Records
---
Amino acid sequence: MLTKRLIACFDIKNGMVTKAHKFQDNINVGRAEDIACKIYQDQIDEIIFYDITASSEKRKIDIETVKNVAKHVFVPFTVGGGIKNLENMYEVLKAGAEKISVDSMAVRNPEIIREGAKAFGSQCIVLSMQVKRVEKTDKIPSGYEIMIDGARVATGMDAVEWAKRGEELGAGEICVNSIDRDGTHAGYDIEITSMISNAVNIPVIASGGAGTPEHVAEAFTKTGASAAIISSMLYSPRLERNYTVKEIKQKLIDCGVPVRPWIENYNCI
Amino acid sequence: MIGIIDYKAGNAPSVLNACKKLHINAHLVSTPGQVEGCQGIILPGVGSAQATMDSLRESGLIDVMKEKVLDRGTPFLGICIGLQVLFEHSEEDDAECLGWLHGEVKRFPDTEVRVPQIGWNEVKFVSEHPVLSGLNESEYFYFVNSYYVVPNDKEVILAKTNYGLEFCSMIAHRNIIAAQFHLEKSGATGLRLLKNFALRVGN
C-alpha cells in the first residue's frame, strides 16, 4: 500500500535554514547541510528546500547549497525558489534534486509548468501555491486566493481553479501552502487542502501550520492529502517542544494512517 | 568501474551521489567509448520513455549497451525509466523501446488511483536473488511513476507492488536487474540494494 509521506521543509536564506511566522520575521536555525543530514538520519520520507529570497532578490537559486544537501540526503529532494526557465530547472536537477517546485514564477508564466513537464516529466514539477482565505466572490468562489512573492502580492486568482489549471498544464504534485496558518502551529488549513485534493487527481501536499503530531494525522484523516509538510515541529526554536519523525509516525500509526515503517539501525543496513 | 549512463532527462547525479556515499567506483558516462570500458552499467531514469530513448539514440549508446549487456553479460541495473525502456513498447507517447525483454509498459488506471504514484510503497520479493541480500521479504521503496511494466515472461518478475492493481516492481533476468522504484532515493534500504549490485560487479 502506498504510504503517506512526511516531508521536511527548509526555508533557506544564505545557506542557512530559517523559520518564518506568516511568511515574516525569519530567524536562523542552522546550516542547511547539517539540518538536512540530521533529518535524513531521523528517517524523514522526503525533503523540500525553498530558497525563499531568490525570487524577490531576482537572483538564481543557491546551487552550492543544493549540491551540499544532495550529497547527504538519499530520499527525494525538491528544490524551489528563483526558477524561471528550463535552464534553471536543469541546473537544479544536475545539482542532485529530483523535483522542482514552481510558485510565483508559474503564476506569471504558467507555460513553465508545461515546458518543465515536457522536458523532465510531470513527476518532476511540483506546483506550490500560497493560498489566503478571503471573502467568497464570483471571481474567487472557493474563498481562497492565490498570493505570490512571499505572500506579498495578491493575484485575484481562485486557488482551486489554479490547482486544476496546474494539473492540466502537467504538474505532478500540488503543494497547498496556507499563508494564514504558516508558522502558527495551529494546524493545517483542512478546508482548502480538502477542496484541492478533491478537485485534482494528482497527489496533494498539505502545508503550513503543523504544530503537533495530531495536526499531521488530521491532514491525512480529514483530507485526501498524500503528503504533509512539517518544519517548525522538527526544528523551530519558536516551538516549546520539537518532535522526532518517529514520534510523529507513531501518532499516524495510532490513527490508522499508513506510513513507511521505522527501521532500526538505519545506518547499518 | 560502474558507468552511470548520463543523459539530459535522467537523474544520474543522484545515483552518482549514492554510489559515492557507498564508496562504489562509479562515473557518469555519456559516450560509446566510455560505456565500452565499464564493468557494470546503471541506466537511471526519470521523465518519459520516449525522451530516454531519444537521448540514448542521439548519444549513440544503444548498440554499445546492447552488445555489452546482451552479448557480453555485463551486469546491468535499470532504475525507473531504466526498467521501462528494456521492454518492447510503452503506452507513454506510443514509444518504441529497447526490446531486450518481451512485454509492454502500461499506464496506471486514473479512475482507481492518483497518477502519478508518488511515495513509499511496499515491495514484496517473490523469489530469491543475491542482489536482495540482507533485505527482508518485503521492504518499502520510493516510487514515482505513472506507468508500470508487464513482462510476457513471468519468470523475470522479482518483486510485486500494489497500486490500484498489482504490478511488477522489479525484474531479474540473467545479468539484468531493474527496479521501478528509485533505490538511490529509498534511504538506507535502497542504498543496501545498490551496494549489493556493486558487489556483483566486483566493486
Note: Chain A has one domain: 5-254.
---
Amino acid sequence: MTNLMTVDYGPMPRPTGVMPWKNRSKSMLVSIGLASLLPIAFTLLVAQHYAMPGATALIAMFVPLQLVAAGAAATFVGGRRGIADAILTVLVIFLVLLVAIVLGSVLFNLIRKGIRALSLQFLFYDSTYVSSSTSLDYGGVYHAIIGTVILVSLAAAVTIPLGIGVGVFLTETRSRMRGPVRFITQSMTGLPSIVSGLFVYAFFIISGFSEQVGITGAVALLLLMLPTVARLSEEVLKLVPQDLRSAAMALGAPRNKAFFQVILPAARSGVITAILLGLARIVGETAPLLMTTVPSDSKNYNPFSGPMSTIPTYIYKWVSAGSDIAVQRAWGAALVLLILVGIIFTFARIFGKQKF
Amino acid sequence: MQIEVSKIERVDLFASKPRRGDLIFFGFAKTAAYFAFSLVFLVFIFLSLRSASTFKEQGLAFVTGSTWDQASNTFQIMPMLVGSLVLVVLALFVAVPSSIAVAYFIEFMAPARVARWTTNIVDLLAALPSIVIAIWGAFVFTPVAAGWGRLLNQYFGSIPVFRNDVDNYYRSPFIGGWILAIMMIPIITSVSREVISRVDKELVNAAYALGATRFSAMRRVILPTARGGILGGILLGIGRGLGETIAILYTINLIFHVNIIRILENRGGSVAPMIASYYGEADGNAISALLAAGVVLFLLTLIVNMFASFIVQRSEKKMAS
C-alpha cells in the first residue's frame, strides 16, 4: 500500500525563459561584436587606402585579423581554452565561404560570359562556314548538342541494363564473386577518363576495327558510366526491405518476376537517380572524346560514320582557336552544357526525393 | 514442441527446379557482373599489349628520364609523373582542410537551413563538368591566381618554394594545384561528411557535457573516430586528381624538365593532360609511348582507388559495429 503515499504531480512543466547557456553578459556581447566588426572595418579602410585587390585583402589581411580578433575575444570570454575554439570557428567559416565563392564565381562568370553568345540561332544552327573570326550572329552549337545527345543515349542504352544487372548480381544472388565484383567496380569508378579514351583508341582504332566515329566515343563514355550506375544501383537495391523480397517469394513469384514487379518498382526512384548521376558523369566528359571522335562543323546524325562534334569537344575546339569571338562561342557552349547538366540534376533531385 | 530452425533454412526452394525466366534473368545479371569485372583486365591488357614496344625500347628510363623527342625516338615521362604528384600535393593543402571544414560545418555547426544550402553548393560543385572548370580556370581564375603568385614571390621570394626566375606567373603548378583542389573538394567532402555524420552524436554530446570545447571535441572525439573514412576520401580525391585532364591542360604549361619546388614558375607537368595534348601530333612510336604513359597512369590510379575503397569499406564496417 505504499503507492498511496506518493502523489503523482504529472509531467512537470518545463520552466520557460531559463536557458543558462543562452545567457550572454554585456561585456561578452560587446567583445564578440567588436571581434566581428573591427577586422572588417580595418581591412576595408586599408584596402581602400592602398587600392588592394579584393581577394588579396581578404586572404592576406582580413582572415589573419579576424583570427586574432576572435582569439582575443575568446580569451576575454572563455579564458585560454577559448582560443582554439575561436580559431576553429573562424577557419571553418572562412573555408566554407571560400568554397561557396569559388562556385559562385564559376556560375557567375559562366552566365555573364555565356549569355552573350546564347541566342535561339546559337542553339539551332550548326557551325558550317564559321571561322574563328565569324561574328556571333552566325553559326551555333546545334550539331554539338545532337552529337552529345546521340553519344550519351547510346552509352546509356547499353549501360543502364548492364549497370542494373551488376546491381542485381550484387544484391540478389549469393555468388562468391560478389566481393571481388563490388571491389573492382568501386575501383573502376575512379578510372581516369583519358585512360578510357586511350583504351578505346588502342582497341578499336589502332586495331583497325573502326574509324574515329560517334560510336567509338560512345564506347569510351560507356566505360566511364558503367561503374557509376552499377555501384549506385547496388546501393539503392540494397535499401529495398528484405521483407518485400520474402513476401514476393512467399506468394510464389519466381525471382525474376519478384524483381521486375516488386523490387524494381520499390527502388524505382533510386535507380532513376543512379542513372541520372551516371549521365551527369559522362555528359561533360572531354578527354576521351578528344581521342575517340573527330569534331565536325555540320550536323551528323549517324554515329557509325563521319566526324561528330559534342559540346565538350566544341568548347575545346573554339578555345584552341583562340580569338576573342571563338572563346565567346566556347563560353556560350559551356553555358549550354551547364544547363544540360542542370536539367539532369533537377530530375535527379525530383526522383531522389520521392519515397517508395 | 520445438521446430529446428536450422533445418528449415537449409531447404533451398529454388535449387530443385530452376525456372527458365530465372535462368535468363540471373544469367544476364551474371554476364553483366563478369563483364564489368573483366573490364579492368581488358583495359590493362590491351593498353599494355599496344605499348609493349615502348616499355621494351625505353626500359626503366621511361619513368626515370626526362626527354620526350619524337625525332630521336626517346620517350621518357618522369617530369610529367613528378608534376602530377606536385599538383596533387599542392591541391591537398587546400582541399583537405576545406573539405573537412565543410563537412564539419554541415554536420555540427550550421543551422539546418544553412546546412542544406551548403550541401547543395557541394553537390553543384561536384556536378560541374571539368571542361567548365577548365574554361573558368583559364580565363577567370588564372589572372587572379597569377596576382597571388606575384605577391607571394614579392614577400616570400627568399623561400625556395616561392622563387621565380622567369617573371611569368601564368600557367604555373600553383594555379594548377588550386584548380585540382576545386575538383577534389566535392569528393573528399562527401566521403568525410558520410563518416562524420556516423560519429555517434551521444559521444560528442557526452564530450560537451564533460566540458569539451568545439575544438577539443573535434580533435579528441570526431577526428579520431572518422579518421579512416576521411583518409579514404582523401585517397579517392587523389585518384581523381591524378586522372584530371582538361582542367589541368588549360591551366599549366607542360614542360619536360623536372620541376619540384618552384611552384610559381610556368613549368609543370601532369601525365593525363600530356597524353591529351601530345596525342594529336603523335605517330606510331609516340602513340605507343602515350599508351604506355596511360598504363602507368592507370596502374597508379587503380592502386590509389583500390586502397581507398578498401579503407572506406573497412572504416564503414568498423563504425557499423
Note: The longest helix of chain B spans residues 20-58.
